[in-house]
Amino acid sequence: MIFIIINTIIVLLICVLAIILYLCLDKKIIYKNLKSKHVVVTGGSSGIGKAAAVEAAKLGAHVTIIGRDEQKLKSAVMDISNVCIAQDEQKIQYAVLDVTSDYLSIEKSLSALEINIGPIFMLINCAGMCICGQFENMKVENIKQMIDLNYFGTAYPTRYVLKGMKDRNEGIVVFVSSEAALLGIYGYSAYSAAKWAIRGLAESVLMELVGTNVRLMLAFPPDTDTPGFQIEELTKPKETKLISGSGGLQSPEEVGKKMIHDALKGKVYSVYGFSGKLLSILNCGSIESPGQVLLQIFSLGFLRAIMALILLSFHKIVRDGLKERLEKGKEKVK
Fold first, then answer.
1. Alpha-carbon distance 324 to 64, whole Å?
2. Where does the sequence pass through the membrane (predicted)?
3. How many other CB atoms sit within 10 Å of the CB of residue 95?
């Protein structure tokens, strides 16, 4: 009898929690398309950024891509223009800009873009880079380079667009982080730190947007087959390849398309595959929906046990790598 009463109380408490969450959470504004909206994509000349820009153009948006290589930007603009649903109406342009430059330069460039096409409705922060390696062996300039591009390259453009979006009471900002911001991985130390900083910024700004119609989404893409990933592979330790490779390799088209549609649906987090879903639940931060909260409540203990086993397998990879290097070192001494 007591057992039944306790279970009934628990169920009632969960129902009350779900109702409170439903009533208190901001109602999501869902957009079906981006027709005549201005979408700006940093890092838009290739990879996930270009794929996101292509998807935005397919949904009727005016698109501006930002990057440093003008030839790549010109080529990307042609590809994006070819998929426009209204060739005569949609405006596709590029801007040569280093998003790690001083804030005033970024403000001036983004302001000029708004004069040409109109206010920025969606900002997608895709500019980023990764250099792998054990932390003590990394060049100091490379550590700073990753912080500058991954963090400040997101923070500065976002700071500029927020005021206008708040004034118009509409807009979407997308932060592109990484699964490396959900779990520290061997060889990703400096990169993880930069992407973790993006997550902290995103979740804090998200709370500042409560009560407005401005939305912010944080994407955690896995390994994606981009030009940047191919460069990343050049310095990636064997252990890192074995660990990160267990999650598979996504295409930029899949990631970019999902990112756009998740943002339009009002999602707070955009995750990919089993590993992304698992890590996002274990790292639950901002409240996305009542259903998501209830899923976290009921699954955290079980999923934590699964994650512990996965981590043990990762640790074994690291130990085996260390053992292999030590044995090679002994052979050299001989």
1. 49
2. 6-25, 172-191, 293-314
3. 18
Instruction: Report yes or no on 90 lying in a domain.
Output: yes
Nearest by Cα to 179 from 123, 246, 261: 246
- The answer to whether 268 and 30 are in contact (CB under 8 A) is no
pTM of the model: 0.86
Q: Which domain does 121 fall in, by range?
A: 34-286
CATH number of the domain within which 201 lies: 3.40.50.720
Is the same domain home to 147 and 91?
yes
Q: Are 297 and 248 members of one domain?
A: no
153: nearest Cα among 213, 201, 117, 116: 201
Tens digits of residue pLDDT in 211-233: 999 999 999 998 898 988 888 88
Rounded Cα distance, 232 and 223, in Å: 10
The amino acid present at 196, given as its one-letter code, is W
Q: What total of structural domains would you count in the chain? A: 2
Of the candidates 308, 328, 138, 149, the residue with the CA atom closest to the CA atom of residue 240: 138
Structure tokens at 71: 């030839």
**pLDDT of res. 210:** 92
* Cβ(80)–Cβ(54) below 8 Å: yes
Residue pLDDT, tens place only, 101-143: 999 999 999 999 999 999 999 999 999 999 999 999 999 999 9
Domain annotation covers residue 29: no
> With contact defined as beta carbons under 8 Å apart, do 199 and 284 qualify?
no
pLDDT above 90 for 235: no
> Final residue of a domain: which of 250, 265, 286?
286
Q: State the alpha helices, DSSP H only, in 69-129.
A: 70-81, 103-117
Q: List the catalytic residues.
A: 177, 191, 195
8 A C-beta contact, residue 131 and residue 57: no
Pair (120, 253) in one structural domain = yes
128 and 244 share one domain? yes
**Residues counted in the chain:** 334
For tokens 């990933």, the residue is 229
Amino acid at 265: K
12 is a domain residue: no
Q: Does the residue 330 lie in any domain? A: yes
SS3 percent helix, strand, coil of the chain, rounded to 5, is 60, 10, 25
Residues 206 and 319 in one domain: no
